[in-house]
Amino acid sequence: MSPAHLAGAAAAGVPGSSVLDVLRRWMLAILMVTCGVLVAGSQLAAGLPVVGGVELLVFLVLALLLSPWAFPRSVGAAEAQRASAVDGRPIVYWRPGCRYCLQLRFALGRLAGRAHWVDIWHDPAAAAAVRAVAGGNETVPTVVLGDQAVVNPDRAWVREQLRSP
Fold first, then answer.
1. Where does the pLDDT of residue 2 fall: very low under 50, low under 70, confident under 90, or very high at 90 and above?
2. Count of Cβ atoms closer than 10 Å to residue 70 Cβ
3. Are 35 and 59 in contact (CB under 8 A)?
4. 77-87 and 3-12 helices cross at what angle (nearest 10)?
5. Which partner from 1, 21, 113, 138 sits 20 to 30 angstroms from 95, CA to CA?
6. Which residues of 132-148 are buried (b: 16+ CB within 10 A; e: fewer)?
7. Measured between alpha carbons, how far is 127 from 89 in angstroms, rounded to an integer?
């Protein structure tokens, strides 16, 4: 399906905000915090507070990296498409916990803020839009620029697109 179908698919849905949607987006971060507290607690009980503190810190950093906070503010698919049509910037469809999305995010550095980021777990229309261009799969990251959609794009290509005026 072409990126033109992407706009129609995204316009058809409404962003999800149920408790289950929020839990799904934060599941890995919550798991990391829980594991960190359990590991640190066991180290404290064993009389190793410094080791427990360091391990807790490691788990907290992992939780941050796996949370939606590691990414620029997400917008809805319809909003991203309107903004991209005006400013010509790419739309990056992503989801929390995706290591490829995280690699792209960190490879872009400060340039990441120039793209329109859309969390497919937060916006069902975004998930449908990605399925429309990814052969029915929710493969992320998917980057859309104009009428071109690239599934799991080369990070250097995305960086170059963001550097362009």
1. very low
2. 17
3. yes
4. 140
5. 1
6. bbbeeebbbbbbbbeee
7. 20
Judged against a pLDDT cut of 70, whether residue 7 lies above it is answered with no
User: Contact, 55 vs 108, CB < 8 A?
Assistant: no
Q: Is 11 exposed, middle or buried (0-12, 13-18, 19+ CB in 10 A)?
A: middle
Q: In which band, very low, low, confident or very high, does the pLDDT at 66 lie, cut at 50, 70 and 90?
A: confident
The string of pLDDT tens digits covering residues 73-87 is 789 999 999 999 999
Cα separation, 36 vs 94, in Å, equals 26
Q: What does the pLDDT read at residue 15?
A: 44
CA dist 116 and 134 (Å) reads 19
Cβ–Cβ under 8 Å, residues 95 and 119: yes
**What is the SS3 assignment for the chain?**
CCHHHHHHHHHHCCCCCCHHHHHHHHHHHHHHHHHHHHHHHHHHHCCCHHHHHHHHHHHHHHHHHCCHHHCCCECCHHHHHHHHHHHCCCEEEECCCCHHHHHHHHHHHHHHHHCEEEECCCCHHHHHHHHHHCCCCCCCCEEEECCEEEECCCHHHHHHHHHCC
CA atoms of 60 and 34, how far apart (whole Å): 9
Rounded Cα distance between 46 and 23, Å, is 32
